[in-house]
Structure prediction request, 340 residues.
Amino acid sequence: MRGPGSDDPADDHDDEPDRREGPSSSDDEPRRDRTDHDREDGRSTRSETSARSDADGREDGVDPIATRVDDRARSREGSVTIEEDGYLRWFVGTDDGTVVAIRDVVTTVAIVALVGAILFGISGVWPPLVAVESGSMEPSMERGDLIFVVDGERFVGDDPIEGTGIVTHDNGLESGHEKFGQAGDVVVFTPDGEEFRTPVIHRAHFWVEEGENWVDTRADPENLNGRSCVDVTACPAEHDGFVTKGDANSGYDQAGSGAQLDYVVKPEWVTGKASQRLPWLGHVRLTVDEILASTTLGVPGSTPATPGSTVPATPAPLEVGLFAIGSAVAIAGSRRPGSW
Prediction:
């Protein structure tokens, strides 16, 4: 048993925290002082460095403060200059309104060229698209449809006419080859080989040889409109070729109906055969033609569009856009193919 004056271990333990905390608090003060002093030295060093840089810049005739402001502005705005970035990067990255407009035009032209090259690579003919102007091929093709055309020797069906790649309606009935709802291929051709006339897009019905009286030997009487060989200019045939007809027409083109041709169609007059149909897209080209026709009627040498024709057109902004490139193509076509 201890007296009041004796040392109690518990009391010693109670005093220990105070002894530990005392020195710790007193040591923190010098550390904070040193940290504040270091910060002040750092700011002082940076200020001296900046002052020396500014002084050096002024000696060189350059305002360093203005330079830094310009650098910050360029960094925020992302601007580019010809001097620092070169012509190509400047043209691609500048926000100048005139350059942006030119850049958009160049981009559109590049897209058109790319799509045109792809279409030409697939089809093998130019232009690879035709806009249908009449209803002579209904219901297989409607007015305003856009038709993708390919070379005769591509995507050949069964039992084609030798050397042409084209399957006639008669041969298609036997081989089972069908295009656009009926047997046989639909072809685009120059009427009677006359380049100034609007091309026609009709179905090739059968093949005849030079001198053949095809009206009596090959023709379906229902498609002759009561005519005999004597009444048909193209009979007997002056050369080998195709007899053609629009699906919605009452008779053969060579028998006074539709395109009203004087001759059977030579293989060399055929510019392509129809492959795929894109409904309504041809209205873009037809609208352009109507506007142009309204401004040129009455001008010497100009003629109105031939009723019932179809227009072969190069890719246009809308047409290409609907081809998945999104967008923008100007319709240009020097020839106007037609169905009658």
Notes: The chain is about 40% helix and 15% strand. The first strand starts at residue 129 and ends at 132.
